[in-house]
Structure formats: structure tokens, C-alpha cells
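# step 3/5: fold
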Amino acid sequence: MIFGNPDSFAVYLDKIEAWSNNSGETNGITGIYINKRFFLTNFGLISFNNEFGNFLNNSNNLQCDQSAFNLADIQLLKFMLMERYPNWYANSEEEWETNIDSWKDCNENHRFDLSLESFSIGHIERFYLFGLKSIDNYIKLIFYIKDDSKDFFDFSVLNSSNIESVILKADEYELYINEIKLYLFKIGINWSLD
């Protein structure tokens, strides 16, 4: 099933009965549509029970920051990565190697993070989905494809080829979220229906 509009943003879910078991796990295939592009996010067994934790829990609590919302996509992604992964970014390999021993424990801001669990499983790249609200009731989604050959987020390689963004009306986005929650509830996964 597809929830949303594939021309802008949608989530694809396909429950696979043969992969589900009697222990309460519901398994299947998931994916993301953004700007008419489809990204299959898992190539094997993925548990729907865990897949949507960040996506559903953080969607209702997205941070509202108009100054960040107005940034260009690359600058907004940098801002979000610095908030979410404060110890894992640099502007070059040299900067990363020079500072790797001086990183301190920092609090991570998870409120932007809408990534599915499967975004980081079994891919050459890793996928990240972040969201932010505007004061006039819009949501901007940033989808980032990271080359997994580097441990850190290399800001020197961020460009339009590995970033997709879309702006949606908040009520449209919330409708998609509630449709997904309702579908998951119907197949036995209980998420709160707001």
C-alpha cells in the first residue's frame, strides 16, 4: 500500500505473510517516495513493529524553526545533522582525523529525525529523513543519501545529487501519518492514533 502522494512524498508498505510469525512480529517491505523517486529501504526481513519508531513518534513533535526552515537545502541538512549527530560531522577527511580524539559526549536532538529503521540496513548508502515545521503550518522534509564508505558526515560532499526535499502542508502530512498508524493498527501493530 502507498500512503501519501508519490509525486511529492509517500511511504510504501507491503506486509508479507510468509515473513511474519506467531511471536507477534509483522514483517514486510518498506520504501519512500520523494519527488516521484522511489527508494526501496529494505531488501529482506524487516519488522514493522520497530520500523516506524522515529517516523511516527517524532512526526507529532517536529521542531518549529522558521529561520532554519528558510535555509537552502544543503545548509538545512548541515544544521539538522549537527543537531542529530553532533560528534559525527566534519568539513573534510583531514578535519575529521585531526579532531576524532577530541569529540565529547553531546546531547543529540532527535526531534528532526524521521528515518525508518531499514534506512541503515543492507545498503551501500544509508538513507536519512529529517523534518522541520514552519510557523505558517508547513513541513519541510529533507531526504539524504549518504555514502557509507566514511564513518562521518562529510559536509564537503553534500550536493543536490544526494539530497531531496519537499514542502507539504502540515495537515496533509499529518493525514498520511494517521493513515499509516491506522493501517498498522489494522495489521496488529498498536500505535497511538492522534
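# step 4/5: annotate
Strands lie at 2-5, 9-15, 28-34, 37-40, 89-90, 125-133, 138-147, 153-154, 163-169.
# step 5/5: archive (pending)
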